[in-house]
Amino acid sequence: MSEAVREAPKKERPEFRNIHVTELSNYRMPLAAIVSILHRISGVMMFVLLPFVLYLLQNSLRSEISFAYYEGFVTYPLVKLIILALSWGFLHHLCAGVRHLVMDLHIGLDKHSARKSSATVLVISLVLTALVALKLFGVF
Fold first, then answer.
1. Residue 76 DSSP one-character state
2. Would the pTM of this model clear 0.85, i.e. be above it?
3. Is the pLDDT at 139 greater than 80, yes or no?
4. pLDDT tens-digit profile of 98-110?
5. Closest Cα to residue 52, out of 83, 78, 80, 93?
C-alpha cells in the first residue's frame, strides 16, 4: 500500500447505542414503524376494553328498558369519543393486519412499497374513522 492510502484520514463513524426514553423525541421513525406501533397499541386497546364492551352489550340485551338506558348513555359526548377511539382502534388494526398479511406473502417488502402501504393504511383507517365520526355525531 502506498503512503497516501495509509495516511488518509478516517471518517468518524456514527455510534449507535440503545435509545433512552429521553431521546425518543429526537429519533425520527419511518412511517412503517409508526404504523406498526399503532397496530400494537390498537390491538392492546381492543384487548383491554373488550370485557367492558361485552359487559355493555350483555346488559343492553337484557330487556327493552336496559337497551333504552344504554341508548341514552351513548348520547353523551365523552362516550361518543370513547366509541370513536375504539372504532379507530378496530379500523386501524384491521387495515394494518391486512397489510401485514400481504407482507407475509412477500409482497411489498422493499422500502418504497412499505412506505406506500403504510401511508395507505393510515389514510384508509383515518378516512373510515372520519366516516364513523360523522355517523356517530349525527351528520348523516
1. S
2. no
3. yes
4. 999 999 999 999 9
5. 83
Sign of CA dihedral 61, 66, 72, 78: negative
- H or E segment to which residue 100 belongs: helix 77-104
Rounded distance between C-alpha atoms, residue 121 and residue 98, angstroms? 9
User: Alpha-carbon distance 31 to 52, whole Å?
Assistant: 32
Burial 19-47 (b: 16+ CB within 10 A, else e): eeeeeeeeeeeeebeebbebbeebbebee
Cell of 93: 388494526
